[in-house]
Specification:
GO terms for molecular function: DNA binding; DNA strand exchange activity. This is DNA recombinase. InterPro entries: Recombinase_CS, Resolv_N, Resolvase-like_N_sf, SSR_resolvase. Belongs to the site-specific recombinase resolvase family. By secondary structure, the protein is of the alpha/beta class. 52% of the residues lie in helices and 10% in strands. The protein has a four-stranded parallel sheet, with helices on both faces. Helix 1 links the parallel strand 1 and strand 2. Helix 5 packs across helix 7.
C-alpha cells in the first residue's frame, strides 16, 4: 500500500499543495496533520506508522515533513528502511528507495549522501542567517541606527528617561526598597540595581 503523509507546522498554514501532489502520485491512503516538526510526538503520524507493514511505501513532499531535527530525520529514515518500508521524497527524485532494491548497498549509499547533504544545507542556512544578522548590525551601527545594549536610564539621559532616572536616584537616596521603586516606576529590578551600582561606584 502507498501511504502519503502531509504536514505543516502551524494551523494557519495550508496543506492543499502537498495533498494535491500526493493524490496525483496515486497514494492509497493520505494522512495529514498540522503539527510542529521538532519531534515525532505527532498523533496522526504515529497512527499512520502503526498501520504500515513490510513492502508498503511512504510518500512525502520533502524530508522536512519528517521533522526539523536532522538526527531525528536520520533515525526515522533508518527505522523505515529496517522495517523494509520504501520511501519516496517527491521534491528529490533520487530519494526513491525502490530504485535501489536490486543494487546491494547502493540505496544506503545514496540515502547517506543525500541525508548528509541535507544536514550540511541546514547548517549552512543557519550560518547564513547568523552572518546576515551580524552584517545587518554592523551596517545599522555605521548608520547610527543600532542601539544594541545602550542604557536608557543614566545621568546623561534626556526627556522622560532622565525624569525616571532622577526619580530612581531620589528613591534610592531615601532608602526606598528596590521592590517599591519597581512598583512606582515600572522599571525592572535589574535596571534599578544597575543604577544603584553606578551611584555607589561614583560615590567611592
Amino acid at each position: 500500500m502507498i501511504f502519503g503523509y502531509a504536514r505543516v507546522s502551524s494551523k494557519s498554514q495550508n496543506l492543499s499543495r502537498q495533498l494535491k501532489e500526493l493524490e496525483e502520485y496515486g497514494c492509497d491512503r493520505i494522512y495529514q496533520e498540522k503539527q510542529s516538526g521538532k519531534n515525532f510526538e505527532r498523533p496522526i503520524y504515529k497512527e499512520m506508522r502503526s498501520k504500515m507493514r513490510f513492502g508498503d511505501v511512504l510518500v512525502v513532499h520533502d524530508l522536512s515533513r519528517f521533522g526539523r531535527n536532522k538526527q531525528e530525520i536520520r533515525d526515522e529514515w533508518k527505522a523505515l528502511i529496517e522495517e523494509e518500508i520504501d520511501i519516496v521524497v517527491l521534491n528529490m527524485p533520487i530519494l526513491d528507495t525502490r530504485k535501489y532494491r536490486e543494487l546491494e548497498g547502493v540505496g544506503q549509499l545514496v540515502s547517506d549522501l543525500v541525508l548528509t547533504l541535507l544536514s550540511w544545507m541546514v547548517d549552512e542556512e543557519r550560518e547564513r542567517i547568523r552572518t546576515a544578522q551580524r552584517e545587518g548590525i554592523e551596517i545599522a551601527k555605521k548608520q547610527g541606527k543600532f542601539q544594541g545594549g545602550k542604557k536608557r536610564y543614566h545621568k546623561e539621559a534626556t526627556g522622560k528617561d532622565k525624569v525616571i532616572y532622577n526619580e530612581v536616584v531620589r528613591c534610592l537616596n531615601e532608602n526606598i526598597s528596590i521592590m517599591d521603586i519597581h512598583r512606582k516606576t515600572g522599571l525592572s529590578r535589574n535596571t534599578i540595581y544597575s543604577i544603584k551600582r553606578e551611584i555607589e561606584v561614583e560615590s567611592i
